[in-house]
Amino acid sequence: MDRPYHRISSDAIVALLDDLDVEKAHVLGNSMGGSVAARFALDHPDRLAKLVLMGPGGVGAGILAPSPSEGLSRLVEFAHDPTRERLIVWMKTMVSDKAFITEELIEERWRNAMEPSAIEWLQLFFSHVGGKSKRPTEEIPLWAQVPQIAAPTLITWGRDDRVTPLEMAWLPLRQMREVELHVFSGCGHWAMTEKREQFERVVMEFLTRPAASVA
Questions:
Q1: Listing from the earlier edge strand, what are the strands of the sheet with 179-184?
Q2: How far apart are CA 194 and CA 47, in angstroms?
Q3: Helix (H) or strand (E) holding 105
Q4: Does residue 74 carry a pLDDT above 80?
Q5: What is the pLDDT of residue 196?
Q6: Which residues contact 155 (CB under 8 A, 6 or more apart)?
Q7: Is 133's pLDDT higher than 50?
Q8: How far, in whole angstroms, is CA 132 from its chain's centroid?
Q9: Could you report the per-residue pLDDT of 154-213, keeping only the tens digit for each?
C-alpha cells in the first residue's frame, strides 16, 4: 500500500543509520527536509539525539501568507516550464539579498536542474500541488503532531522567508516540548547558505551543548 512521502523518507533515514551502524544521530532538515526530519522525530524517537529544523514545511500553520507561497509558486512554474529565466525568478525568492544570486550560482543550479531525470522528478512531485493527485496523505497533519516531539529542537528561520513564512514558526515554538527559535534578519529561505557563518555557529552551539541537568 502506498504511504505518504514523509513516512517513506523517515524510514529511509532509519535504513541509512542501520547501514552506518549508528544507533542515534542528530538530524537536520531544511524546507521539505525539515518536515521529513520532524516525521522521523515522531516515528523513531529512540534513534534521534537532537533535531534542527530550518524553515521547515508542514510543522507550522500559515495564517496571513498566501498558499501556496510565492517561493513555492515560482518553483512549480519552473518545474512545469523549465527555462533559465524562470529559474532566476525562483532563486530570487529564496534569498533576502538578491546580490547573493550570482551568475556562478545560477549556472550551478541550472546544470543541476538539467541533469537526467531531475526535471521529471520535480514535475512528478509538484503534480500533487492543487489537490490533483490521489497520493496518500496523513490523517492528522504534521503541525498537529509536533507537541509529541520530545527531542531537544532548534528551529531556525529567515525573517524574510518567502517559501515558508516566519509566522509558521509560532505554532511549533509554543507547542513543542523542548524548543528554541533563532531568526536571522536579512535572510530568506536559504539560511544555511545566505547566513552560513552565523547559521553554523548557532547550530554547532546547540548540538554540542551539554544536556540540561534535571533537578
A1: 25-30, 48-54, 153-158, 179-184
A2: 30
A3: helix 103-113
A4: yes
A5: 95
A6: 52, 53, 54, 56, 169, 172, 173, 179, 180, 181, 182
A7: no
A8: 23
A9: 999 999 999 999 999 999 999 999 999 999 999 999 999 999 999 999 999 999 998 765
Domains and CATH numbers, the chain: 5-65+133-208 (3.40.50.1820), 70-126 (no CATH)
Retrieve residue 73's grid coordinates. 509558486
Handedness of CA 103, 193, 54, 35 (dihedral sign): positive
Q: Which residues are catalytic?
A: 189
Terminal Cα-to-Cα distance of the chain (whole angstroms): 47
Across 55-184, the runs of DSSP E, i.e. the strands, are 153-158, 179-184
User: Is the bond preceding 68 in cis, omega lying within 30 degrees of 0?
Assistant: yes
pLDDT score for 117: 86
User: Can you say how many angstroms the Cα of residue 65 is from the centroid of all Cα atoms in its chain?
Assistant: 17
Give how far Cα 9 sits from Cα of 34, 38, 161, 166, Å.
11, 11, 25, 25
pTM, whole model, 2 decimals?
A: 0.87
Say what the pLDDT of residue 170 is.
95
pLDDT at residue 126, rounded to an integer? 67
Answer yes or no: are the C-beta atoms of 119 and 80 closer than 8 Å: no
DSSP 179: E
Cβ atoms within 10 Å of 5's Cβ, excluding its own: 17
Q: What pLDDT was estimated at residue 208?
A: 96
- What single-letter amino acid sits at 182? H
Could you tell me the sign of the dihedral formed by the alpha carbons of 181, 182, 186, 188, in that order? Answer: negative
